[in-house]
Amino acid sequence: MKSKLPLVHLSLFAVALIYAIVFSIAREVMQYIPPFGFIVLRVGTSLFLFVLLYILFIKNEFIERKDLTRVLLCGVFGVGANMLLFFKGLANTTPINGAILMTNTPIFVVIIAAFYKLERLTAAKLAGIVIASIGATLLLAGKNFNFSSNTLMGDLMVTINAIIYSFYLVHAKPLLYKYKPVTVSVYTFAIGLLFTLPFGFQELTHSKWDLLQADLSNHTYIWQTIWFKIAFIIIGASFFTYLLNAWALKHGSSSLVGSYIYLQPVLAAIIAQIAGKDQLTTHKVLLMILILIGVYLATKKNKELA
């Protein structure tokens, strides 16, 4: 595991970077494709890509019958319900509220993993999570977030999503010890597609396809179009993030994977600075350092119980 730990951190950093970008573009995409319809598109396309990888590189690995219950739970909680609640919640709250509420995920991961006695709950890990959580909240709070009755339903959905995603991170770990990440992803995304179809198929058919088509002719560069943003979320924030997260879970702990969520607001702030949409102040830099210290403490000596 130690030899692969740098690659695990690199994979999780890439996931955090992708999600940091998604927070800023997801609501724009949902103006054209409703949340549940977009999830069906995400899950269906990702499943196709995972099946393609499986056919090309895996072929003969199958989930055993005794593990099907765990796979079913991971498919429902980690793919289906997780995506539906997150995007529907984000459509009914603000990106800042959503980002803040998602920083609760590492806390839930540690609690669930400790409950099942899958990871040691150390003082350093607890301190790191608290420090990173405070830093992330203060960094995001500087952007005038506001929890109110107008965003209550969306905030609740994002919070429930954080809990069930934590459940997935803990319960997927034993599967990834035993099977390859692509194999697990094929099964979980197939279950996820069956779960999301009843919720999103009708919404998908009522998407604003005519406006999407017109959007192509309204921009000089492809990366400015809604189509590019849709492709980025589907391929980047669905296919690649789940593949990278699954690989990282195979070689690292659940709490290590969860703790990288704290980097999302740091990366979002840097991206906003580069894009000229925000100003990087000394106060923000200090909070970013605080978050990095917290992540370091939370991931230091991260070992599962034997």
Short summary of the structure?
This protein has 306 residues and is mainly α. It has one domain. The chain has helices at 5-29, 35-58, 68-91, 95-102, 105-115, 123-141, 152-178, 181-205, 209-216, 226-251, 254-259, 263-274, 282-299.
Structural account:
It is a single chain. The chain has about 300 residues and is mostly helical. It has one domain. Helices cover about 75% and strands about 0% of the residues. The chain contains 13 helices and no strands. It is globular, with a radius of gyration of 19 Å.
The sequence of SSEs as H and E is HHHHHHHHHHHHH
Q: How many β strands by DSSP?
A: 0
Given helix and strand content, the structural type is mainly alpha
Q: How many angstroms separate the termini?
A: 14 Å
The biggest beta sheet is recorded as:
none
Number of helices: 13
The helix content is over 70%
Shape: globular
Overall average residue pLDDT: 83
Outline the low-pLDDT stretches: 302-306
Q: What's the structural domain tally?
A: 1
Radius of gyration, CA atoms, in whole angstroms: 19 Å
Beta-strand content: under 5%
Q: What labels describe this entry?
A:
306 residues, disordered C terminus, mainly alpha
